[in-house]
Amino acid sequence: MASLKLENIYKSFVKDQIVIDNFSIAIKDGEFLVLVGPSGCGKSTLLRIIAGLEEATSGDVFIGDRLVNNIHPKDRDIAMVFQNYALYPHMNVFDNLAFGLKLRKVDKSEITERVEEAAKILEIEDLLARKPKELSGGQRQRVALGRSIVRDPKVFLFDEPLSNLDAKLRVQMRTEIKKLHKRLKTTMVYVTHDQVEAMTMGDRIIVLKDGIVQQVGSPVEVYHNPINMFVAGFIGAPAMNFITGDIKNAQLVCDSFSIDLSELSEINKHEGQKVIFGIRPEDIHLDTNGFSLPLLVMEPLGNETLLHLEGKHTAILAKVRSTDATELGDNVNIRFDTKQICLFDCKSLKRIL
Ligand SMILES: Nc1ncnc2c1ncn2[C@@H]1O[C@H](COP(=O)(O)OP(=O)(O)OP(=O)(O)O)[C@@H](O)[C@H]1O
Ligand SMILES: [Mg+2]
Fold first, then answer.
1. Contacts of 35 by beta carbon, 8 Å cutoff, 6+ apart
2. Which H helix or E strand runs over 230?
3. Residues 169 and 291 both lie in one domain
4. What is the pLDDT of residue 343?
5. Are 48 and 192 in the same domain?
6. Among 99, 136, 149, 319, which one is most buried in terms of CB atoms within 10 A?
7. Domain for residue 350, yes or no?
């Protein structure tokens, strides 16, 4: 087990095109850190730099207290699990699990012991004689995990390991990986572009965009206190609503309606300012005294129902209890929970309130 530290990492593959821009983080021993961001933002590149499969243009990587910039990947004591499990098709599960250890010339009896232990943890003991093609997607992913476990690494790196699985299996494997972390207590860095995975799995999450860290924090912090409009829009499903408007007399004035914000103590500071107003779908409530908007579509999800409402220039999505959403007409009256709103500066897109 070990802590992991990245200091001022820059990476460009092509001159003048920065892929990772001054990335620094200290990951505690035993922490589960999730790196989340849209496709192409540099997540895999960062993992590959940690693993030593890619060299940083500048910056330092430490595993524990050891500077590993010049240490070969196989000597970094790191295990990486990829999206495509890359199992050896001609080998059975036992041999797939044992392969890395055999290469390292580990003693035969110890190999058997470690493979059996990993198989037990992952509940694949009955599958050891099967070939990968005789396994389901979830079972294959377990074998891929098992291959890392047998190595007993200091750090696990996961690069979107669940994205090939169907929705149900993803949820199941998500829990399995969390359980694994709880049991092994090894430092884990987990990359995903799925914000639900990030929220549910991480002790801390890092939101990355265009190679630049946007925010680092616990899932709850990032969800409730997004630092800018990108983070606010990226974290949370369905996504936060954004409405452009002006602050006039402590009101948000936009095309379709005005909202009284006078109960927000700092609203006066922004008088006259053009802002982007953000509100999450669950913070919009049905209220007969609220303002009225046309209802375009209703999507019942079981316990909750999504209401697609039509503002003049903006669509608005509300999430309400299904029991409250019966007998709605063509127009619905809604109220925003103004304590839960975010305001962003129109130009910098940074959060101002
Ligand atoms: N070997 C390479 N040569 C040149 N450019 C590269 C190379 N590898 C990655 N890139 C570029 O670096 C950027 C970051 O790529 P990276 O694979 O790290 O993104 P990602 O966040 O993992 O995306 P995804 O979610 O799609 O996997 C992309 O613009 C990509 O095109
Ligand atoms: Mg990637």
1. 43, 46, 47, 189, 190, 191, 192, 205, 206, 208
2. helix 229-234
3. no
4. 95
5. yes
6. 149
7. no
CA 201 to chain centroid = 8
Helices (H), 74-107: 93-103
The domain boundary, picked from 197, 212, 234, lies at: 234
Query: Which atom from ligand 1 is nearest to the alpha carbon of 193?
Result: 25
pLDDT tens figures, 60-109: 999 999 999 999 998 999 999 988 778 999 999 999 999 999 998 999 99
- Residue ranges of the chain with pLDDT lower than 50? none
- Closest by CA position to 57, among listed 14, 24, 3, 27: 14
Last residue of a domain, one of 234, 257, 285: 234
* Cα–Cα distance list, 97 to 175, 217, 298 (Å): 22, 35, 49
132 and 218 fall within a common domain: yes
Q: Is the CB of 13 under 6 A from ligand 1?
A: yes
Domain encompassing residue 93: 4-234
Query: Do the domain assignments include residue 60?
Result: yes
The model's pLDDT over 117-132, given as tens digits with 9 standing for 90+, comes to: 999 988 899 999 999 9
Residue ranges with CB less than 5 Å from ion ligand 2 = 44
Radius of gyration of the CA atoms of the chain, in A: 24
Q: Is 40 in the pocket of ligand 1 (CB under 6 A)?
A: yes
Within a domain: residue 353?
no
DSSP 3-state of 228: strand
Domain at 268, CATH number = 2.40.50.140
Cβ burial of 137 (10 Å; 0-12, 13-18, 19+) is middle
Domain membership of residue 328 (yes or no) is yes
Is beta strand 315-321 parallel, antiparallel or unpaired with respect to 251-253? unpaired
**How many A from CA of 340 to the centre of ligand 1?**
36
Nearest CA to ligand 1 atom 18: 42
